[in-house]
Amino acid sequence: MDELLIKEFDVRYINAVSRKNLKEHAMIRLIISSLATPEEIFNLTRADIRKTNGVGTVRLNNGRKTRIAPIDNRTFEVLMEVSKDKSRRQRIFEYSKAEMDDVVRRHSPAKRTYDVERLRSAVIEILRDCQFFEHDYVNDILNGTNFEGVVDFVHDMHPMFSGVWDLDDDEVAEDFIENYLILIGESDAKKIAEDICESVERVERILRGITSRRLRI
To answer: How many angstroms separate the CA atoms of 195 and 163, rounded?
Structure first.
């Protein structure tokens, strides 16, 4: 399998399995959706999560500069949920950088370990491959510039914004589980369901669909 497709699977895997812990899932979604760095994650407060012209955004501060980044609707909802008991100026994630890296590492595929920077870099590489433009919108995201252009770009090209990196849609979930069978090497429905936080019944149904389609080929 192509290296970039493996990285995309890994991003989807980390996003899926992290749902076991909502706060950790929120942090991982923040990295994937906004390309947040450890320092930006650490400095995030409830006041930094807002709607801007109907678009969910986060204000990210690394101590030297501040940037505004759009985030997908699900990430906005999860961040609001995990910060609901926080004051507006209270940090949402009190993790050290080492603890952030450990969160990502624990949710990584067994044979391909990620930390915050490696996960962030994988998403950047995937988005750059999706650009198909002379203009570097990924650079705009990282620099907090060209907000309207970035919003259009992420809604067109970022898989988190279209729901492709979540598992709500059955066709999307089937594609993910088919790659799971190849790259994780596990085919037991109960173990898959437990790993990716899905019901056994749904995983069994999707596995039957994969088997049926393979038999028709």
So the answer is: 20
Based on the domain organization, do 152 and 201 belong to the same domain? no
Structural domain boundaries enclosing 143? 3-162
- 28, 74 contact by CB (below 8 A): no
Q: What angle do CA 179, 35, 108 make, to 5 degrees?
A: 40
Token pair 């069994």 is at which residue? 204
103 and 142 share one domain: yes
**Alpha-helix runs per DSSP H in 35-188:** 38-43, 73-82, 97-106, 116-130, 137-143, 147-157, 159-162, 170-183
Does this model's pTM top 0.85? My answer is yes
Q: What is the pLDDT of residues 49-105, one digit of tens each?
A: 999 888 999 999 998 999 999 999 999 999 999 999 999 999 999 999 999 999 999
